[in-house]
Structures are given as structure tokens and as C-alpha cells.
Write a structure and sequence with these properties.
The structure holds 2 protein chains of 2 kinds. Chain A is an all-beta fold. Helices cover about 0% and strands about 55% of the residues of chain A. In chain A, strand 6 and strand 7 form a beta hairpin. Chain A starts with a strand and ends with a strand. Chain B is mainly β. Chain B has strands at about 5, 10-15, 20-25, 30-40, 40-50, 55, 65, 75-80, 85-95, 105, 110. The radius of gyration of chain B is 13 Å and the shape is globular. Classes of the chains: A mainly beta, B mainly beta. At the A-B interface, strand 5, strand 9 and strand 10 of A face strand 4, strand 5, strand 9 and strand 10 of B.
Chain lengths: ~110, ~110
């Protein structure tokens, strides 16, 4: 049972454009929503994370927007660069999930020069 | 610090063979995880451990066994490999619960013929 749905599966953006990846979750007990970035041949690495007490979190060119009522959150990459080309995973977790995170299916982002 | 390391990096097995994947971390983390990554399915949790001597089932545990005899090591075993277990396997660790940053290893690419 996939509790976190991610879209799109793949995304192509021109350099300087905005990349937007969306995720939706089902479990209202989730209270931690990280995004992981994975380059080819490497393991995922934490990019940015948000908790539901805020609606937005920004770190450099990366922003998470969170809509608790809609049970959705999204990653925005401003001024996208070719070096941002990677696979991005959203995830969700919380106290009721114990030690576990539930990951989305992943989005392969390509930023063309 | 080496972080999270995985051995081996690549392996090819024949159906029915067995093998053990080794994960080691030098960050003194309590929690360790084994995931498998398949195209379009994201990261799925196989087994995890909340401390030395403990293990628990994740989302897709069938066909796998694990052991955590030492805090720094987490072993994943395949007793009788099947083609459906062809995947990339990632180990991760975190200091505290799943709502803490998970640090991933570089992965093991396993092919079962």
C-alpha cells in the first residue's frame, strides 16, 4: 500500500526555470516530510525537510510548500541548474510510524543547459 | 568518518543461491535500515533495527533475513535468491527515530539470474 504518491515520474526543465515536484499522503498522523536527492550511482541524501507547523520552508533555491488540509506537499527548485539533475524522493514519517519513513516513487529531474 | 559503507558493490547470483550483504556505519547511530530500490517504486523498507540485537520487519520483508549483532553492523541475508530480488539495495542509518536524517550508503546492485 503506497501511502505517499509522487508526481511527475519524470521532469525536464530548462536552465533557469522552476522545477516543481508534488507529493500527496494519506496518513494524517505523519508529521515529518523530508525530500531526498539522489545522483546516479549514489545513495539518497537529505535535501530539505518540513514539519506541519509551518506552511513553507526555504533553503537557498529549494523550497518546500506544505498544505495540511489537502495532505499535499511540494518541492520547488528555483533557477534550476544542470547540476540539479537527479532523482528526487519525497517521504513522510511520524511518531506512529516509529523509526520508519515512507517514500514516494521518485521523480527523475533533467535540467537542460 | 566513512559514514555508511556497503559490501559488495555489485553481485550476480543464480536462482537459489544465498548471500549476505554487509552494512557498516561509524556514526554511532542506533537505527539502521535496509531498503530496496526498483524503477518507479521508490525506496521500500525491507527490515530495520532500532538498536543492537533488535530487528523488525518493514514493508517488503519476505525472502530476506537480517541480523544486528553489533551496533555498527547490519547484515541482510538472502537464503534462496529469486529473480524478483534483482534490485539495488541501500542501507541507511539514523541517530534517533525515523524523523531524524537518514544517512544512506552507496548501494549494492544485485542481479539474480
Amino acid at each position: 500500500q503506497q501511502q505517499v504518491k509522487q508526481s511527475p515520474q519524470s521532469l525536464i526543465v530548462q536552465k533557469g526555470g522552476i522545477s516543481i515536484i508534488n507529493c500527496a499522503y494519506e496518513n494524517t498522523a505523519f508529521d515529518y516530510f523530508p525530500w531526498y536527492q539522489q545522483f546516479p550511482g549514489k545513495g539518497p541524501a537529505l535535501l530539505i525537510a518540513i514539519r506541519p507547523d509551518v506552511s513553507e520552508k526555504k533553503e537557498g533555491r529549494f523550497t518546500i510548500s506544505f498544505n495540511k488540509s489537502a495532505k499535499q506537499f511540494s518541492l520547488h527548485i528555483m533557477d534550476s541548474q544542470p547540476g540539479d539533475s537527479a532523482t528526487y524522493f519525497c517521504a513522510a514519517g511520524g511518531e506512529t510510524s516509529g523509526s520508519r519513513l515512507t517514500f514516494g516513487e521518485g521523480t527523475q529531474l533533467t535540467v537542460n543547459p | 568518518n566513512a559514514g555508511v559503507t556497503q559490501t559488495p558493490k555489485f553481485r550476480v547470483l543464480k536462482t537459489g543461491q544465498s548471500m549476505t550483504l554487509l552494512c557498516a556505519q561509524d556514526m554511532n547511530h542506533e537505527y539502521m535500515y535496509w531498503y530496496r530500490q526498483d524503477p518507479g517504486m521508490g525506496l521500500r523498507l525491507i527490515h530495520y533495527s532500532v538498536g543492537e540485537g533488535t530487528t523488525a520487519k518493514g514493508e517488503v520483508p519476505d525472502g530476506y533475513n537480517v541480523s544486528r549483532l553489533k551496533k555498527q553492523n547490519f547484515l541482510l541475508g538472502l537464503e534462496s535468491a529469486a529473480p524478483s530480488q534483482t534490485s539495488v539495495y541501500f542501507c541507511a542509518s539514523s541517530y534517533l527515530v525515523g524523523t531524524d536524517t537518514q544517512y544512506f550508503g552507496p548501494g549494492t546492485r544485485l542481479t539474480v539470474l
